[in-house]
Amino acid sequence: GALVYQYPRRTICKSGTSMRMECQAVGFQATSVAWYRQSPQKTFELIALSTVNSAIKYEQNFTQEKFPISHPNLSFSSMTVLNAYLEDRGLYLCGAKDRGEVFFGKGTRLTVV
Amino acid sequence: AQSVTQPDARVTVSEGASLQLRCKYSSSVTPYLFWYVQYPRQGLQLLLKYYSGDPVVQGVNGFEAEFSKSNSSFHLRKASVHWSDSAVYFCAVSPSNTGYQNFYFGKGTSLTVIP
Predict the structure, then answer these.
(1) CATH number of the domain bearing residue A19
(2) Tens of pLDDT along chain A (113 residues)?
(3) A43 → closest Cβ in B42, B90, B100
(4) Shortest Cα distance from B68 to chain A (angstroms)?
(5) Is A113 contained in some domain?
(6) CA pair distance A106, B44, nearest whole angstrom
(7) Which chain B positions have a beta carbon within 8 Å of A104's beta carbon?
(8) Domain count for chain A
């Protein structure tokens, strides 16, 4: 079956430092990967959509300078939160799509102290 | 532009009662429509989806949803809820102009089922 693994599942970083999270597609080819953030008590906000061999498209309020994304092949994507501050805390979810379906990982929960 | 409105932030029902969670959407292009559920400290699980055809779609665990183009709605229903249905439910749209690759979510409805 198709699965999406995200790691780490939980992480804590000091304010002002950076944190990298990874998204691994198993059992299918992730032609596109979308990254989302769920801040405390809020919904899932789309950060960016990455399609292999295409430019990464960031949503308003999110930038490559703050959330650089790598999508080097059809099974892997990573995103870094640079200079993390309190407002960056939350659950980061990746959704990977093959030809038909989007599969979500269980997320990386980021705490900033 | 896409947006999803879930007007009820919290819903409380008794076990065995029927349930409707409301969702209205706005989309400039033909969307796919989804309902996802998030259990405490978990990611998202797909309940059901609508692409086209019969406006009533069946999902997992007895959930169903009805699409209404005239009302721009996609309400979720269940005939008889169980305490284990307590969770946060998200309605989402996926626009066709991105090849249905990404989602825009509503703010979620937190469902509490009282035993």
Answers:
(1) 2.60.40.10
(2) 888 999 999 999 999 999 999 999 999 999 899 999 999 888 899 999 998 878 899 999 999 999 999 998 999 999 999 999 999 999 999 999 987 778 899 999 999 99
(3) B90
(4) 23
(5) no
(6) 7
(7) 43-45
(8) 1
Smallest CA–CA distance from A97 into chain B, residue = B101
CATH architecture of B2-114: Sandwich (2.60)
CA torsion angle for B61, A4, A99, A67 (degrees, to 10)? 120
Q: Are B89 and B111 a contacting pair, CB within 8 Å?
A: yes
Q: Which two tokens stand for residue B22?
A: 């409301």
DSSP conformation letters of B63-76 = EEEEEETTTTEEEE
Across the interface, do B105 and A51 touch by the CB < 8 Å criterion? Answer: no
Residue in B with minimal Cα distance to A95: B102
A44–B105: do the CB atoms touch at under 8 Å? yes
CA A30 to chain centre: 13
Query: Does B106 sit within 8 Å of A43, measured CB to CB?
Result: yes
Pairing mode, if any, of strands B19-21 and B10-14?
unpaired
